[in-house]
Amino acid sequence: MSRTSKPAPSSSGGFFDVPKLTTQLGELEQKMSAPGFWDNTDLAQKVMTEANATRNRINGLDALEKRVADLSVLYELTEEENTPKARAEFAAEYQAAEKALDELEISVLLSGEQDPCNAIISIHAGAGGTEACDWANMMLRMYTRWCERHEMKVSVLDYLGGEEAGVKSVTLLVEGTMAYGLLKAERGVHRLVRISPFNSAGKRQTSFASLDALAEVDDTITIEVPDKDIRVDVYRAGGHGGQGVNTTDSAVRITHMPSGLVVTCQNERSQIKNKATAMKVLKSRLYEIEMDKKRAEQEKHYSEKGEIGWGRQIRSYVLQPYQMVKDLRTGEQSNDVQGILDGKLDEFIGAFLKGKKRTDKDEDDEVE
Question: Which of 131, 277, 287, 99 is nearest to 208 (CA)?
């Protein structure tokens, strides 16, 4: 019996430098116990989040090392018994340890300054008309279900429905652990191939929708937006609503004159709350632009630039004539199309965060 596996992470290096992490945790705990720690609630919450993440990494490594040690003992017992039941038990434990290692690796990779932030994601229907609006609505459900699986809170900030079906665009605030760090992997154009329910001839149709992800800017980051640079318009909310949401001029649209950015918010009855949320989204977008300029990769990482259509997709979801979802950046693929549309996206997100690149064979097998 032989198995190939990833090397177990070492507490003295590799994925973790545990002594360094322990020192960092001690420094954070000192800040938390200092007088006046809760005077600045937002800053205190950020320190607590960082402390919990550091503590979880240390505990995760300890638990994994114990699991690997137990796995070694189980392997020896399996070799002695050499029965189908013993081999099946070992295989199950091995897979569980491998999954724990993958999760540990992802937690290490999510070490960017913005990764712990909440995420603001926008979904836009692209080429494909009503079919694209329906696909955007399917994506809205897919990411909402993914958030539910990860116990993240989702709030609709803005919603523009399609003329016949689906949604033209929707903006969501996702609040949860490493929300931005995980969802940044999904930024780009997504392509759907299926038999269109809106085509009476039953022909196969291709449609596109894009997802943009921003880190929510908190009070520790200062973004100055002079009043003279913005125009604020109010209007009556449309789409989802009720209880007065659609009966008052509470929706807010803010136009940033220098950049041409336009953000809207209509999820609250209060015009003041909608304006505050819209300003937060605007500042997040402006901050992301500056960060992308520094990285000199703005065309790759930000905004809905160019046509949301052919040649720009990061992932293809094929329902006909066969079923497959394939990421065109990493080569990761799966035949569990329904599971993925139900929010099972972790394998694709993990492959991207680990820096997996598609091979020449992946390119040859690219979904048509």
Answer: 131
The SS3 call for residue 210 is strand
Rounded to a whole number of angstroms, the distance between the first and last alpha carbons of the chain is 40
* CATH topology assigned to domain 18-109: Methane Monooxygenase Hydroxylase; Chain G, domain 1 (1.20.58)
DSSP 300-336: HHSS--S-SSTT-EEEEEE-SSS-EEEETTT--EES-
pTM for the complete prediction? 0.69
Q: Is the peptide bond before 321 cis (omega within 30 degrees of 0)?
A: yes
* 289, 259 Cβ separation under 8 angstroms: yes
pLDDT at 279 over 50: yes
pLDDT at 147: 96
Q: Which CATH class is domain 119-215+299-364?
A: alpha beta
In this prediction, residue 110 carries a pLDDT of 84
In this prediction, residue 218 carries a pLDDT of 65
Give SS3 for 93: helix
The rounded distance, in Å, linking the Cα atoms of 344 and 205 is 24
In this structure, what token pair is assigned to residue 290?
């500056």
The CATH number corresponding to 227-295 among 3.30.700.20, 2.10.60.10, 3.30.160.20, 3.40.50.1980 equals 3.30.160.20
Q: In whole numbers, what is the pLDDT of the chain averaged over residues?
A: 82
In 10 A of CB 359, how many CB atoms? Answer: 11
DSSP 196-227: -TT-TT--EEEEEEEEEEEEPP-TTS-----G
| pLDDT given for residue 361 in this prediction | 58
Question: Residue ranges of the domains in the chain?
Answer: 18-109, 119-215+299-364, 227-295
Backbone angles phi, psi at 209, to 5 degrees: -150, 150
pLDDT tens-digit readout, 69-111: 888 899 889 988 889 988 999 999 888 888 888 878 887 788 7
Instruction: Report whether pLDDT(133) > 90.
Output: yes
